[in-house]
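thought: user wants a sequence for this fold. calling inverse folding tool.
action: design(structure=
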């Protein structure tokens, strides 16, 4: 089938990414859910490549209770990642609670992707990091899968309502956050209120003798060493549009995707190894 000019431009851009990292960590894309922003994910991935790409869980949203929201852009994201793997990048998929079904495939490959529950990543400067989604560190009461189901149902119902309100009211640009978006991110933040989630994960990494932990799950992007070792959270692609990257020297930074109306989505560091309080 003939490609449109836009598709050709995307393909060319994807072959010449603006930023080449040593490692890229990205989580909580929630592909298939209503809150997902596939265009922003694709634009970021087209411009950011890495020798190793960790998909840190909740990439697919297989728990979504209504008909999955799936478009050509969703397909393009998966085929771009597949092309990256075929071109030599190592792509590692760490399942989360929303793509829990993939946990049955841990220790195997799905296409070009390695699937594993958790990974140990060694940085260019010799540090070792535990990489995992992080749902194993939920408070005991939220650990049951029924909470993922209830959460997905509430998220779907509220975002469906939000879509209808936007259609009727036509008051908000499509990319602007509504009150419902804000409420949903508050609920997520409340579920992970306090630093218990961070402490449980850093304790787990410390017990294994690691220098830090890199996770997703809470949708709260972070990069600090408040608990004695490095805690990095990729954030998400529903609200924060962030990722964690490692450069050729082993420096770790938190990338924030630039809003599409401002500039081409490239991702700029908002915190790095040299940020105050961040241990090397
Ligand atoms: Mn999760």
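)
observation: tool returned 280 residues.
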């Amino acid at each position: 089938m003939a490609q449109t000019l836009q598709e050709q431009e995307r393909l060319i851009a994807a072959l010449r990414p603006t930023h080449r990292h040593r490692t890229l960590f990205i989580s909580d894309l929630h592909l298939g859910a209503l809150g997902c922003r596939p265009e922003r994910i694709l634009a970021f991935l087209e411009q950011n490549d890495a020798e190793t790409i960790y998909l840190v869980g909740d990439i697919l949203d297989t728990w979504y209770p209504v008909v999955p929201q799936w478009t050509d852009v969703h397909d393009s994201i998966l085929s771009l990642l597949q092309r990256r793997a075929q071109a030599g990048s190592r792509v590692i998929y760490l399942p989360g609670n929303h793509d829990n079904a993939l946990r049955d495939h841990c220790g195997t490959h799905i296409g070009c992707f390695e699937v594993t529950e958790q990974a140990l990543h060694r940085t260019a400067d010799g540090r070792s990091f535990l990489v995992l989604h992080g749902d194993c560190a939920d408070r005991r009461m939220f650990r049951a899968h029924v909470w993922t189901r209830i959460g997905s149902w509430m998220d779907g119902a509220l975002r469906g309502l939000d879509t209808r309100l936007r259609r009727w009211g036509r008051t908000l640009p499509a990319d602007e956050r509504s009150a419902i978006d804000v409420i949903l991110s508050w609920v997520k933040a409340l579920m992970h209120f306090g630093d218990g989630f961070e402490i449980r994960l850093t304790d787990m990494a410390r017990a294994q003798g690691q220098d830090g932990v890199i996770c997703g799950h809470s949708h709260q992007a972070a990069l600090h060493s408040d608990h004695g070792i490095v805690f990095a959270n990729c954030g998400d692609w529903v609200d924060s549009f962030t990722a964690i990257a490692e450069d050729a020297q082993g420096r770790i930074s938190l990338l924030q995707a630039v809003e599409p109306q401002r500039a081409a989505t490239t991702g700029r560091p908002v915190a790095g190894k040299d940020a105050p309080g961040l241990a090397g």
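thought: summarizing for user.
answer: Here is the designed sequence. Residues 57-58, 96-98, 133, 135, 217 surround manganese (II) ion (CB under 6 Å).
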